[in-house]
Amino acid sequence: MNIKNSESGDIEQILVLYAKAIEFQKSKKSNHWYFFDQELLEVEINEHRHWKIIENEEMACVFSVTFHDELIWGERDKNPSIYLHRIVTDPEYMGRGYVRHIVDWARIYSIANGIQFIRLDTFGGNDKLNQYYEECGFVFCGFREFSSNENAPPHYLDGPLSLFEIKVEN
């Protein structure tokens, strides 16, 4: 297993993984993402903020990072943080604990770059996923709800987000 930056040649495969994730979310009758902006994906790749996990020479999982997320975290965004977004595992590779590997990677990255927190958010109603994040070391920090007059992605309006963080210890 290897975590490395996604490349522009990966875009088509990443979009397929995102589409599979949306179908999976719909099958669970839970909140789901609506679509993914290819231009945003291209920016993340060009800025070296999109990552892939390679196993058996195949793309098994992808995720992106950002270093500010004021829309979701508000005042807490002032703390140096790495935010994990859109973690998607290919269904053929589910159950292999990739989030734990991503957390280990993010912890090493954070220590090397003076980052205090590893943070992520997910749909509030997905109890199984929320519990899994806690098993991976995240602490539940509460919910974030959006009103229709806020400039937020459409899926954020479908219900509260669960917020999670890990305080990075040297």
Topology:
Blueprint: E1 2-5, H1 11-27, H2 38-46, E2 50-55, E3 58-66, H3 70-73, E4 81-89, H4 98-113, E5 117-123, H5 127-135, E6 139-144, E7 161-167
Parallel strand pairs: 4-5
Antiparallel strand pairs: 1-2, 2-3, 3-4, 5-7, 6-7
Short description:
This protein has helices at residues 11-27, 38-46, 70-73, 98-113, 127-135; strands at residues 2-5, 50-55, 58-66, 81-89, 117-123, 139-144, 161-167. It is α+β, with helices and mostly antiparallel strands.
Which runs of at least 5 residues are low in confidence (pLDDT < 50)? Answer: none
- Structurally, how many domains make up the residues? 1
How much beta, percentage-wise? Answer: 25-35%
First-last Cα distance: 25 Å
Helix residue percentage: 25-40%
Radius of gyration, whole Å: 15 Å
The CATH topology assignment is Aminopeptidase
The rough form would be described as globular
What does this structure look like?
There is one protein chain. This protein is of the alpha+beta class and 170 residues long. The protein has a single domain, classed as 3-Layer(aba) Sandwich (Aminopeptidase), CATH 3.40.630.30. The chain is built from 5 helices and 7 strands; from the N terminus they run βααββαβαβαββ. It has a 7-stranded mixed β-sheet with strand order 1-2-3-4-5-7-6. The longest helix has 17 residues. The two termini are 25 Å apart. The model has no long low-confidence stretch (mean pLDDT 88).
